[in-house]
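Design a sequence for this backbone.
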């Protein structure tokens, strides 16, 4: 089995790239989706996050309001505090899933999509690292569209979250593969197909 990390800055198109890899046959784990599971009421992570960050992040239905949590975390410079709660649990759950898959498909390619692989120093879990990039202004436009807000508000949020992440230039230096997602999707897909071919050869060898 080949374990591959897929990372990049906010709104660079990691999920779109992951979907392209999935269409080619890779198995995808989205760390954000894993974290969503761990944020459910009754999970140990849920209890600890609410204890640390306050009942005001809990919605009437009991679920954690991710937007309110993000505002506290980024606004009060408490990213590391949250990561120490969530990251170990995410990694443990993913490791169990990967282990189960490896038993069934020894030559599978598994891509773990996560924003903070280098920042969390978890890149050692992977044989290869892929970094997705795009132009800074595109991040703002894409985040505005995704969040349903205007570009001025999106720019503030993108800049705030980017400050908590390693600069793209540094991630690129540490990457085995870089996908430039600044152009049309067909150009991105062409890069994905080329990289997948190399990963497949490694997984089968």
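Sequence:
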């Amino acid at each position: 089995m080949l374990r591959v990390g897929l990372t990049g800055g906010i709104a660079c198109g990691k999920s779109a790239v992951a979907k392209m890899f999935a269409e080619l046959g890779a198995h995808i784990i989205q760390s954000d989706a894993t974290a969503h599971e761990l944020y459910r009421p009754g999970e140990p992570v849920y209890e600890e996050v609410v204890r640390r960050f306050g009942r005001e992040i809990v919605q009437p239905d009991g679920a954690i309001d991710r937007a309110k949590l993000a505002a506290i975390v980024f606004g009060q410079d408490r990213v590391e505090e949250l990561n120490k709660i969530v990251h170990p649990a995410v990694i443990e759950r993913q490791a169990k899933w990967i282990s189960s898959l490896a038993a069934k498909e020894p030559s599978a390619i598994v891509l773990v999509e996560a924003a903070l692989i280098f920042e969390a120093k978890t890149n050692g879990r992977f044989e290869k690292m892929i970094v997705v990039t795009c132009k800074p202004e595109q991040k703002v436009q894409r985040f505005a569209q995704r969040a349903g807000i205007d570009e001025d508000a999106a720019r503030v949020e993108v800049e705030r979250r980017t400050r908590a992440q390693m600069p793209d230039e540094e991630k690129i230096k540490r990457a085995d593969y870089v996908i430039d997602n600044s152009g049309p999707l067909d150009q991105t897909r062409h890069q994905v197909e080329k990289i997948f071919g190399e990963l497949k050869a490694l997984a089968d060898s």
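The chain has a mean pLDDT of 94.
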